[in-house]
Amino acid sequence: MTIIAHISDTHFDGSERAMSRSRRAMDYLRGCDVDVIVVTGDLTDHGDVEEYDQVRSELVADVPVLLLPGNHDDRAAYRRVLLGGEGAAPINQLHRVGGVVFALCDSTIPGQHGGLLAPETLTWLQGVLADAEEPVFICLHHHPIRVNNPLLDSIRLQNPDDLAAVVSASPMAAAVLCGHAHAAAAGTFAGVPLIMAPGIFSTTRLPWTTTDELAWSNTFDRDDIPGLVFHVLENGQLTSHFRTVPA
Ligand SMILES: [Fe+2]
Ligand SMILES: [Fe+2]
To answer: Would I find Transferase among this entry's keywords (predicted)?
Structure first.
């Protein structure tokens, strides 16, 4: 049995608020018996080196913590602080933990909030799936399906069909994990489960839950309790548990 803790959108911005919400999640997870922690992007709010210093010191545990970039991140600063390298190419990473392969695909477009999987990233993912002998969790920041909030859907992944073609061609694809939507939500994509982690930093409001007209200024509920997902893979069966983080 493999237990994957999935959090997203920590948005470290130097504030006490962002720090305390992430600490609440990580303190909780460090007391849980999980095999790996996946953070599906928007690690920082502005992509500053100082914010990555916080990521490096806060998003740590005794188990591997896998970190994806999001649209609020910056590839060069991410590389400099977290990987010890230089450059602005997509940050695609392969990890093997607990009998599972994690393909972390960089879906960011520098300077934009929407997402795109570049041809080199899709080719890389195709290779990972072709070589895999264990179930592969395909992780990216941007949601490839609608989340029913028009604002968030305007900045979703722009080329979902390209991803679907790669995923559906492989029997090793177990699930797609993403963030960005700040929404605990699930669907299907290219024949596999698609699961979105709620945002640590805030939660997207849904149009039918309010009479307010949603705009960028009010679409995120900053008072909602931070949450996370536990994905359990046992004998090829995936079950995902959505939980709020205890105070
Ligand atoms: Fe975010
Ligand atoms: Fe995002």
So the answer is: no
CA dihedral 18, 21, 23, 25 (to 10 degrees): -140
Per-residue pLDDT tens over the stretch 112-168: 999 999 999 999 999 999 999 999 999 999 999 999 999 999 999 999 999 999 999
Contact 213, 175 (CB under 8 A): no
Q: How far is the CA of 81 from the centre of ligand 1 (A)?
A: 20
Ion ligand 1 nearby residues (CB, 5 A): 9, 42
CA of 154 to the centre of ligand 2 (A): 12
Q: Which domains does the chain have, with CATH numbers?
A: 2-244 (3.60.21.10)
Q: 85-112 burial, b if ≥16 CB within 10 A, otherwise e?
A: eeeeebbbbeeebbebbbbbbbbbbeee
Give residue 28 CA to ligand 2 midpoint distance, Å.
23
Measure the CA–CA gap between 69 and 9, rounded to whole angstroms: 10
Distance 197 CA to ligand 2 centre (A): 12
Ligand nearest to the CA of 114: 2
SS3 148: coil
Give backbone dihedrals phi and psi of 78, rounded to 5 degrees, phi first.
-55, -50
pLDDT tens for residues 26-42? 999 999 999 999 999 99
